Amino acid sequence: MDVNSYMSTDLVTIQSSTKVIEALDLMKEHKIHRLPVVQGETIIGLITEGIIERNTPSTMTSLDMHEVNYLLNKTTVGDIMEKRVITINKEALLEEAAVMMRENGVSVLPVVEAGNRLVGIITEKDIFSAFIDVLGYYTPGVRVVVNIHEDKKGVLEDLTEIFSEENINIQQIATYRKLGFVQVVVQLDSKDTEGIRAKLEEHGYEIGSIIYKPERA
User: For 128-165, what is each residue's pLDDT tens digit?
Assistant: First the structure.
């Protein structure tokens, strides 16, 4: 999966010349916490509620509210925005976006294409959505975890043949390498947990867990 598949393209952007108080109003209107700052279609910065808060006089200041509002109306987004924006290409792998977020301590990445042209934005929530989709959380069926202690060729092919012989459709499949063994997680279009367990054990497979997942709203 790539970033392009899960990024949001319904963007709300802002110009560097916009007053900070207008940026706050825009965030409130759209119920968002950050705004990409653009020049034409090119991203040049990022403004967030946190950045504005850090650059706003605190309640302990000697300034009165009129003076605070005056400063907010005078200060532009370009005066305080983050100029060193971490971006990601829309063709990048989704896991690359996850790694970049974790390593840089951010929860959002502007998505660009050639020429640093802003085309979308991807957030932690989008990464979570992809994870949920991969594991088929909302799809009813049997979820079986098979423990493979000898990592060898042909295991997935063998499992596929077993389910095919039983006329059971594979909905999702994923593998996880753990210390000393591999787990194959398979979701199947079936309700027969006991029958699937028996068939896999008959072929010598160790079952880590097996459950039936009902349809979720």
Answer: 999 988 888 889 999 999 999 887 889 999 999 999 99
Side-chain half-sphere exposure of 26, counting CA atoms within 13 A: 18
Residue 194, both tokens: 């006991």
Pick the last residue of a domain from 96, 131, 166.
131
- Backbone φ and ψ of 139, nearest 5°: -100, 125
| pTM for the full predicted model | 0.75
Helix (H) or strand (E) holding 113: strand 108-113
What is the enclosing helix (H) or strand (E) of 178?
Answer: strand 170-178
Q: The tokens 């605190």 sit on which residue?
A: 58
Q: Are residues 58 and 75 in the same domain?
A: yes
Strand 34-39 relative to strand 42-48, pairing: antiparallel
Distance CA 74, CA 42 (A): 25
- CA end-to-end span of the chain: 25
- Residue range of the domain that includes 70: 3-131
CATH number at residue 61: 3.10.580.10
Residue 159: which CATH number? 3.30.2130.10
Residues 105 and 186: their CA atoms lie apart, in Å, by: 32
Strand partners, 209: 145
DSSP element (H, E) containing 88: strand 88-89
